[in-house]
Amino acid sequence: QVQLVESGGGLVQPGGSLRLSCAASGNIFSIRDMGWYRQAPGKERELVADITSGGSTNYVDSVKGRFTISRDNARNTVYLQMNSLKSEDTAVYYCNAHIRTITMISGQDEYWGQGTRVTVSS
Predict the structure, then answer these.
(1) 46: Cβ–Cβ under 8 A, 6 or more apart, which residues?
(2) What is the SS3 string spanning 9-68?
(3) pLDDT tens, 15-54?
(4) Residue 1's pLDDT band (boundaries 50, 70, 90)?
(5) Quick one: which of 31, 28, 35 has its CA closest to 1?
């Protein structure tokens, strides 16, 4: 019904940058909040950043000042610009979105992307 497809992950050196993208497609009526989660080796999944339909943003403390979340509502896409990357940022990053489909009168369902791997290493 709805698919979230992530891209942009890869291998980068410490101090480098990556830009993750997540595009939603399918029977979408509207998208409320969108976010990025990550799961590092040996750790639980955590919220990295999220953004509301109105553009309000929230970040986990460890990425503040380095990461920027944004969205393009016309393209049903959310981005995560990651600068000054550290080895601690190494993780699989997952896109998350709350979406109302065309069959729903109200409310939203939660969807997840398949994950894109980010490795920060020299």
Answers:
(1) 37, 38, 39, 60
(2) CEEECCCCCEEEEEEEEECEEEEEEEEEEEECCCCCCEEEEEECCCCCEEECHHHCCCEE
(3) 999 999 999 999 999 999 999 999 998 999 999 999 999 9
(4) confident
(5) 28
